[in-house]
Amino acid sequence: MYNVGDYVVYPMHGAGVIVAIEEREVLGERQKYYIMQLPIGDMKVMIPMNAVEELGLRQVIGAEEVERVYQVLQGEETAMSSNWNRRYRANMEKIKSGDIYEVAEVVRNLTIRDAEKGLSTGERKMLDTARQILVSELVIAQNSTKEEVEEAIQEIFQQ
């Protein structure tokens, strides 16, 4: 159970803050929802409270875990399928997992692949999505700005 003011991560959307808990009627069914404000993109999302577990909602990582995220980003590219479709599905599963380390792995692998061989339109969009999810959580975990986090990530890949 989360409270108003808690920072949480919603897989495929990124990190934000719970700004309200409201009861709403949707499709003829009354239930309670977390209203989550996503700072990047300035979007609000309604999350059914009875589906939090299956949706993978979780708390934002702590400051001590931020360093591990940067270590993942600095790591070696992991083996990926040469088949575009398999690679895309594997990366999508990692993003959907909501695990920040897996999202960081997708950002690292696709960024390296982009520098070496370029990316298809689909993979470029996936990289942008994964990067936005990663940045949104790091902004909150580090208490910094979007620009500072993006710059730190950019520096890692310019070495």
Task: Show the helix and strand layout.
Elements: E1 7-10, E2 14-26, E3 29-38, E4 43-48, H1 52-55, E5 58-59, H2 63-74, H3 84-97, H4 100-117, H5 121-142, H6 146-157
Antiparallel strand pairs: 1-2, 1-5, 2-3, 3-4
What attributes characterize this protein structure?
single chain, 5-stranded antiparallel beta sheet, 22% strand, 6 helices, alpha+beta, 52% helix, 159 residues, 2 domains, Methane Monooxygenase Hydroxylase, Chain G, domain 1, Thrombin, subunit H
Task: Describe it.
The protein has about 160 residues and is an alpha+beta fold. It folds into two domains: about 5-60, Beta Barrel (Thrombin, subunit H); about 65-155, Methane Monooxygenase Hydroxylase, Chain G, domain 1 (Up-down Bundle), CATH 1.20.58. The protein has six helices and five strands, in the order ββββαβααααα. It has a five-stranded antiparallel beta sheet with strand order 4-3-2-1-5. Strand 2 and strand 3 (about 30-40) form a beta hairpin. Helix 3 (about 85-95) packs parallel to helix 5, helix 4 crosses helix 5 (about 120-140) and helix 5 crosses helix 6 (about 145-155). The chain is globular, with a radius of gyration of 17 Å.
Give the total of domains: 2
CATH topology of the largest domain: Methane Monooxygenase Hydroxylase, Chain G, domain 1
% residues in beta strands = 15-25%
What portion of residues is helical? 40-55%
Instruction: Give the SSE string.
Output: EEEEHEHHHHH
Query: For this structure, what is the CATH homologous superfamily of the largest domain?
Result: CarD-like, C-terminal domain
Q: What is the CATH class of the largest domain?
A: Mainly Alpha
